[in-house]
Specification:
Mean pLDDT: 91
Strand content: under 5%
Helix content: over 70%
Distance between the termini: 29 Å
Low-confidence stretches: none
Length: about 60
């Protein structure tokens, strides 16, 4: 799962069906994988928003 998170963060266009198959082989359901993607995307969004605006993470979530 962590390898998937790094790949989705650093090279999102390289993520494919093989990555999903690998997650499934480790016991993750499609719903689990969707939740994983949501969390990764949310953190990436928040990091980019904070970088672009200069908002500190603790201020952003306060």
């Amino acid at each position: 799962m962590l390898d998937y998170a790094v790949k989705l963060t650093n090279a999102p266009s390289s993520v494919g069906e093989a990555d999903v198959v690998k997650l499934r082989s480790h016991g993750f359901t499609d719903r689990d994988i969707l939740d994983i993607v949501y969390v990764i995307c949310l953190y990436n969004f928040n990091d980019r928003l904070a970088d672009a605006t200069g908002i500190k993470a603790h201020d952003f979530f306060a």
